[in-house]
């Protein structure tokens, strides 16, 4: 394991929230490489990787199941994680703080939806004066929605009121119960709301609006990162893990039903029925970090414009991006 503390980076990132010791799954072979798996939406596409990890000559693979990105950051800074998944801006902030991680791949693209039962909403401009629950203050759903609303000439707090007082599952439940008129939710919580109330729908395609304004097909939401101990000391293992992760993503998209059952059996934070329905509505991908540089920089530019400290005050340099050999 890497044992460097990265204390300066920890100070810049502030206080972290700790959780109970996570479960470790491993192969009984050789030196350990630890991969963190986020329970919940980000962990869905890694299920097949967890169930059938690649056999490596130089090391064994262990999986650390994390309940939040905060726990991943804490374990990363203490040298206990060699690779894993994080939100784009969190990975960028760590890199700007001096943590030598590289983005190996984008593993989750745009999956944020505006949901309502109001059939009069035909454009974002129709939301002027509305109160809208936005899941994830200062996260991708928030800044994406603020950006798209600004393109319609509307400013948060002035022309509409964003609300952030509910966690994702609660927002989905209250929207389904018609206690909220509008909500901006990522998958699988959007699908959860739709399952609870079939009268809900997505009146505006936010990804289509993103494409219209940026020329990009989608926006990245989560990335698979690696630390030097993996990409420098074990380059063959780095390649093998990348290929196995890509295969896991492909199988997830090809077989949502079996993936849902697998995710529930692995206790990765999602019931099979919800995962099965959400997978086709999500955007699980495996796009090499260097090849996704433009889309990553475009999204990080939003964070930089709204809250510079959310990405460490600057866009990451070229050392942030890694190209996995094919």
Description:
The protein is an alpha/beta fold. The chain has 13 helices and 11 strands. Strands 4-10-5-11 form a 4-stranded antiparallel sheet, with helices on both faces. A 4-stranded mixed sheet has the order 6-9-7-8, with helices on both faces. Strands 1-3-2 form a 3-stranded mixed sheet. The chain starts with 6 loop residues before the first helix and ends in a 20-residue tail after the last helix. The N terminus is likely disordered.
Mean pLDDT: 90
Residue ranges: pLDDT <50 for 5 or more in a row? 1-29
Number of distinct beta strands: 11
Q: Strand content of the residues, in percent?
A: 15-25%
Helix percentage: 25-40%
Determine Rg (CA atoms, Å).
19 Å
User: Which structural class do the helices and strands define?
Assistant: alpha/beta
Number of helices: 13
> How widely separated are the two ends?
27 Å
For the biggest β-sheet, the strand order reads 4-10-5-11
Write down the overall geometry: globular
The largest sheet, given as strand count, sense and whether it forms a barrel, is: 4 strands, antiparallel
Could you spell the SSE succession in H and E letters?
Answer: HEEHEHEHEEEHEHEHHEHHHHEH
